[in-house]
Amino acid sequence: MYTQALDTHGKEPVVAAAGESAAHAARFQSRVDADEKIEPKDWMPDAYRQTLIRQISQHAHSEIVGMLPEGNWITRAPSLRRKAVLIAKVQDEGGHGMYLYSAAETLGVTRDHLFEQLLSGAAKYSSIFNYPTLTWADVGAIGWLVDGAAIMNQIPICRCSYGPYARAMVRICKEESFHQRQGFEIMLTLAQGTAAQRLMAQEALNHWWWPSVMMFGPSDADSKHTAQSMRWKIKRFSNDELRQKFIDVTVPQAHFLGLTIPDAQLRWDEATQHYIGGPIDWSEFNAVLKGNGPCNRERLQARRTAWEAGRWVREAASAHAEKLAARTTQAA
Ligand SMILES: [Fe+2]
Ligand SMILES: [Fe+2]
Questions:
Q1: Residue 3 CB burial class (10 angstroms; 0-12, 13-18, ≥19)
Q2: For residue 331, what pLDDT is reported?
Q3: Among 35, 186, 262, 326, who pairs with 206 as Cys (CB 3.0-4.6 Å)?
Q4: Contact predicate 142/129, CB 8 Å
Q5: What spacing in Å lies between the alpha carbon of 222 and ligand 2's midpoint?
Q6: Is the whole model's pTM more than 0.85, yes or no?
């Protein structure tokens, strides 16, 4: 009921005159321009709704697929403290997925439908999670770089025009900040350790640097959604601007760790006060996006198995809800 009711909210009435619909659109844009939050029952252009459903659900999928590469190390964490921290972090990512699926549901789509799209391969998630975690240092590098890149991407979304998405991001960003620090601390410990540990840290940086830089998405020139999303204040900075911020923050951190960024062309540019990197190999990004990364099949299979294993829980919860509803009707 909840979702069906929302389904009819905010869409243009079929019988609306063209002038009326244009007036709705103008009022909507002026609210966005005035930095007002758009709420689920407010009128919104259908393309705005669809863009948000696509973006929020991709984000939610990325959170729960992102649990897999690190979850893989919970049983092998090198100490009890590291294990407790990693469990807390992976659990946070599950929570992020739940907030985001809930935010997407306010736009009139069901969670079951979003899951179907993920499990059938129709929906995308962040391609970074299709890389394997081969050593403990990879867990450190994910926290430092992948969560670090996620923070750059997500802090501006706290000011997104859509209220439920913006509010979900406030807590998510606080937790991502803890994730980034725990990753950096793992890297720092390794970087100050034995020669073998330093090498492990360097190899993890080599492994995750370029996929992290690519997490910001295609260059602005090739990004088809950027301009409209900026007008709607779903997006506040372009992909290239966010990527530059990430590089500028992360390069000095690598220097502090005594590690080398695997980009021979990387240099400090005095004129612009930015680090300028070498060209990005987008063919790799596109191959991973198309499903040909090292772990695409494994990740989707893990999600499908989890969905099947949880079927009895969903069915039991539905049966219980039906019994409760029947009891309430009888009592009335
Ligand atoms: Fe997260
Ligand atoms: Fe995270």
A1: middle
A2: 82
A3: 262
A4: no
A5: 27
A6: yes
